[in-house]
Write a structure and sequence with these properties.
CATH architecture of the largest domain: Up-down Bundle
Number of helices: 15
CATH topology of the largest domain: Dehydroquinate synthase-like, alpha domain
Number of domains: 2
Structural class: alpha/beta
Order of helices and strands: EHEHHEEHEHEHEEEHHHHHHHHEEH
Radius of gyration: 21 Å
Bound molecules: nicotinamide-adenine-dinucleotide, zinc ion
Number of strands: 11
Largest sheet: 7 strands, parallel
């Protein structure tokens, strides 16, 4: 027998740029992202994919994009007309969007160094990211995130995916974007619900990593709820920064291990999304999931009752609901229906359950089992005090 112990390391790098008005005549942000690799010979071929919800909210956007492209035609070439795909979870619930993108890439002789530019929310980023990752085993992708949740979280990292049957993100890859651009001005047309969704992910990461940021969110809850763009800009920037630092320095960017600190509050959130047939959005579900796990952690003595209440009140002050009636649902065995979320979470992790819980505010710990009786108590407390 002979074994070669193969080993190599690859260093990844990509810029995450915050700006306002990406397609202003004098804006060079997109050009800088496209021209990252100095060895490329131009012009750069791009396929632009636009979130339909974004297009409907900003009908002048396609014209602004094409005007900007025409002004830079010597360096950027549009391989096909702008492709509009459905926004929201619907984009991920079927494989037709991915298939359309694959077909488009094939028909336009898209190469590995050509670039998908996806403008949209987290669902569109996940969908286009998946298509870009499988075409030619991975072509370039620039994410232009247009929701608070995508700018803070979903669109700055290295994951993509689509749903399969009732399996959320069942298909997907780890793929590093070529560049990420967060145009904060795009956020102004979001619905109130989608405006608030990113705040849930901010509270999530603040609770487990940054007590000072949690304090800041609490102090700016009114401004955030009232749609102050400067406050939201700081919120998404700091949240994205914490996510990026986690991916870069936590030693497990492609999630080979079981710990998932960035999934604090998510085991029940994913379950609530599927129980409600995606009637409740990811951000809304995460707010409920955080509230539940804060109370559970307080019952275990990992945080004080005051700390749990403070986090839950902050979510509410930001306009997020922390209760949904589906928490009451029970399976045929009489257990809470969300409990099945623990099994699914364990399966997704690949064996051992690993749930992140806060240890005080600004720090975290991992547990490998959840006590069902205490969970019942946490749900009851949430219902009685915060429903
Ligand atoms: N890959 C990851 O690491 C990761 C992390 C967290 C969440 N996610 C995924 O992200 C998705 C949620 O993303 P989301 O919260 O961004 O919501 P979303 O992508 O579902 O978008 C919400 C709605 O906003 C619309 N929209 C987008 N931009 C707009 C704008 N500027 N103005 C008006 N409307 C606009 C969309 O069309 C959609 O209807 C979920 O599928 C979740 O699983 C992925
Ligand atoms: Zn999330």
């Amino acid at each position: 027998m002979k074994t070669f112990e193969q080993r190599f390391t690859v260093a990844y790098q990509y810029p995450v740029t915050f700006c306002r008005d990406l397609f202003a005549a004098d804006s060079e942000v997109l050009l800088q992202a496209l021209l990252r690799d100095e060895t490329d010979v131009g012009p750069h071929r791009v396929l632009i994919v636009l979130d339909r919800g974004l297009e409907e909210a900003q009908p002048d956007l396609p014209l602004r994009i094409t005007t900007w492209l025409m002004a830079h035609a010597d360096q950027v070439e549009l391989a096909a007309p702008i492709e509009v795909i459905p926004g929201g979870e619907f984009a991920k619930k079927q494989d037709t969007a991915v298939e359309r993108l694959v077909k488009l890439a094939y028909q336009t002789h898209f190469g590995r160094k050509d670039t998908f530019i996806a403008l949209g929310g987290g669902a569109v980023q996940d969908t286009v990211g998946y298509a870009a990752a499988i075409i030619h085993r991975g072509c370039r992708m620039i994410r232009v995130n247009s929701t608070t949740l995508a700018q803070a979280d979903a669109g700055v990292g290295v994951k993509n995916g689509i749903d399969y049957a009732s399996g959320k993100n069942f298909l997907g890859t780890f793929a590093v974007p070529y560049a990420v651009i967060n145009d904060v001005a795009l956020l102004t047309t979001l619905s109130d619900k989608d405006w608030r969704n990113g705040i849930a992910e901010a509270v999530k990461v603040a609770v487990i990593k940054d007590a000072a940021f949690l304090q800041w969110i609490q102090e700016h809850a009114d401004a955030l709820r009232m749609r102050d763009l400067d406050a939201m800009e700081y919120l998404v920037q700091r949240t994205a920064e914490l996510h990026l630092m986690h991916i870069a320095y936590n030693g497990d960017p492609f999630e080979r291990g079981s710990a998932r600190p960035l999934d604090f509050g998510h085991w029940s959130a994913h379950r609530l999304e599927s129980i409600t047939c995606w009637q409740i959005s990811h951000g809304e579900a995460v707010a409920v999931g955080i509230a539940l796990d804060m109370l559970y952690a307080s019952l275990l003595g990992m945080v004080s009752g005051t700390e749990a209440t403070r986090v839950i009140a902050t979510l509410q002050e930001c306009g997020l609901k922390v209760w949904c009636d589906e928490l009451n649902l029970r399976a045929t065995d009489g257990k809470l229906a969300i409990i099945e979320g623990l099994r699914q979470f364990r399966e997704h992790l690949g064996g051992q359950l690993c749930v992140t819980l806060p240890r005080g505010l600004g720090d975290k710990t991992e547990v490998h089992e959840m006590n069902e009786a205490l969970l019942e108590q946490a749900v009851q407390l949430l219902r009685e005090r915060f429903a």
